[in-house]
Amino acid sequence: MMSLLFRPDLDAGEVFVNFNQNTTSLAVATKSGYSLYSLGSVDSTLDKIYTCPTEEIFLIERLFESSLVAIVSQRSPRKLKVCHFKKQSEICNYSYSNSILAVKLNRERLIVCLEESLYIHNIQDMKVVHTIRDTPSNSAGLCALSSSSEHCYLAYPGSVTSGEVQIFDAINLHAKTMIPAHDSPLAAIAFSPSGTELATASERGTVIRVFSSLDGTKLFELRRGLKRCVSIASLSFSTCAEYLVSSSNTETVHVFRLERSSSENSEPKQSSDDWMGYSFFRFLSKTVSSYLPSQVTDVFSQGRAFASVTLAEPGVRRICTITKIQKQLRLLIASQDGYLYVYSVPSMEGADCQLIKKHDLRLDDCYAMDVRVNPAPSLGVATGVTTATNIIAANTTDNNTKHNETKASPSSNSYATALKGDASSNVASIGGS
């Protein structure tokens, strides 16, 4: 039985929202289909790229700015469809032994997460190149794939009782490292844009940690709060990797600044008699730490939120990210109740994030669009597009060569074009990788 923890309640009017890998577009799925939006002018308008009235969709992932989207519907939760939305064609589809809980994409790999296994596809021809079997039960479908092709790493929970993170090299197809990140089970994980850092949060939700994905070294420890029973819903690095933003089941979104300069250069200069300044606090914390238990001294070294946003409604699942839009840092918060919030990011610690725009994602019902919107893709395939239907058997014995594949080589020109990306698919460009 799969968990419905992260699925929207479509009957209650909720939506599925998801940013693409470099935060240039937003995907929104409702009861009546899905839409893709450009984020290039989000301060004022939310420009629509594409709308498709189709069946109820609970998972959708777009590959950067390309025309390639991966979707999973409510009606067929075991089937993954890869589509070329501009040509309104289905490139291939795969069926699995259990329900799909998550799908992740980058320019090299497509990852499908089931409750107790992970399938790694080569995105160039959609062949299954490796299967990670018998993973610890992962009913929430928690996993992360780096958007970087150079450090193409996959992260997933390594235990159901503690916060172990397994990092897998998705290119060379071998386990890289295991990080004992938390004492409690994991609730959220996210890679930095370069793939060299991994942020983690546990089910307790009070501390967020950042590790090197190369060797498992702890780089940052950030204090989100002191409350128990806080569920982290989203962790995300900014596109410049200088900030980390988190949301939870509370009404507060926290923004942390990751100070990467050396401690000597970052310490402000204080006069010798500035007893209440930064130098005295550093001296006090070091002195006190020699007398107090490690659990108490950890609090002294943990970073605090650089800025925060308080929204009206607690208990709403939200995903957050920070990116540059028209050369300005923006905090974007997309919520499952159908809103996209745009905030400025302050330059000084402790200042407020100012609300710039609130977009209602539910106003654009897919069945109420004007005649210029493309019709839904049919079950058939446009001329020249290869279809692949693959049944991934539960008892497959050879991960690299035997996957009961009937056809998995969508090598047509349209597929290659979609992988490379199409500049015309963006209404406006924004900053970022």
UniProtKB/TrEMBL annotation:
GO MF term (any one): phosphatidylinositol-3-phosphate binding
Keywords: Autophagy, Lipid-binding, Membrane, Repeat, WD repeat
Protein name: WD repeat domain phosphoinositide-interacting protein 2 isoform X3
InterPro entries: PROPPIN, WD40/YVTN_repeat-like_dom_sf, WD40_repeat_dom_sf, WD40_rpt
Annotated source species: Glossina fuscipes
Positions of region (Disordered): 397-433
Compartments reported by the entry: Endomembrane system
Gene: LOC119637782
Recorded superkingdom: Eukaryota
GO CC, alphabetical: endomembrane system; phagophore assembly site
Gene3D superfamilies assigned to the protein according to its UniProt record, in alphabetical order: YVTN repeat-like/Quinoprotein amine dehydrogenase (2.130.10.10)
Pfam name, any one: PROPPIN
